[in-house]
Amino acid sequence: MTFDAGESVRTRLSARPGYARGRAGTIHMRRSAEIYSVRFRASDLWGEGDHDVFLELRETDLERA
Amino acid sequence: MINDIGGMEGFGSILSIEDSEPFHAAWEARVFGIVRALIYNRVFTADEFKHAVDRMDPASYLGASYYERWTDALERLCVEKELL
Amino acid sequence: MSGHEHEHPTAPMNRRVGILERALVSRGVISGEQVDGILELFGREMGARNGARYVARAWVDSEFRQLLLTEAPAVLREFGHDLRGTSNPELARLRLVVVENTAVTHNLVVCTLCSCYPVPLLGPPPGWYRSNEYRARAVREPRAVLAEFGLPLDDSVRIQVWDSTADSRYLVLPMRPAGTDHLTEDQLSELVTPQSLVGAGIPLCPQ
Q1: pLDDT single digits (tens) A13-62
Q2: C106, C108, C140: best mutation site toward chain A, by most A Cβ within 10 Å?
Q3: Neighbouring chains to A with at least 3 Cβ pairs closer than 8 Å
């Protein structure tokens, strides 16, 4: 399964770091065969904050939202 | 795991941004160099080392300084690889 | 009693690391000279000055800037860590990603899990970057953290925090300060502070 830039995804419970588990995000870009840069809104992560957080996650830690 | 502290609450102000030195004491630099040498010499990989740091006894982790954690991980990994 | 009551606070760790190093040397898996060489290399060759040179070049050369934003590893391979072609054993594996500050976007770099940092370019990370406080708070309250660092950002500026959770290591390309058109590239690089390279500050203004 590959994801496209801009696609909405949800992280699986296997994802690290812990604050990003089971969260909704958007694919920013693919970095390599296995790794994506994913954008999260702070409000979706912690219910507060007006910033975005970019994480790199394995494809296996992501599913289509 | 205990190193997974992103977003954790209860931490105070950032110890001064003037704390800009990479090493506060000679032993810290030495640990940095020893770990790199062991990785270059393929005794363990960078990932193995990082994982060893993460496996530190949780009760000790937050109170230990960054390079104290490295020293702990280094000792543990060397014991596991029967070098010590 | 241990008999160490009046010794310097770092003495116990000095002893512990010294014992460790001697044991590993006697096992033949490292040499003291090799460790000395690594510290010499990282102390002398790698540091924030390298990042500052890259930023100054990007400010004066828009083609270079574009390459840096899209293919930083290729640029590093060509120009080395000091922009003068000097390479080091780790540079080829550095998956550098350069992120650009604009009038409406400010970037901040952290590694919440372990303090990863673009070491083969900038050298070992500074103390504050490695602190539990920074690792915990930068992703959650970057605006407050930046204000504590002396950089209160206008509400109209969006903050993007990059958590180095996999292979990429991030370098921030700060905005070029106003009033610098007359400066040489070397003079421009003097304005680029170490903090600005990870977004924890901004470059200095010219005198």
Answers
A1: 999 999 999 999 999 999 999 999 999 999 999 999 999 999 999 999 99
A2: C140
A3: B, C
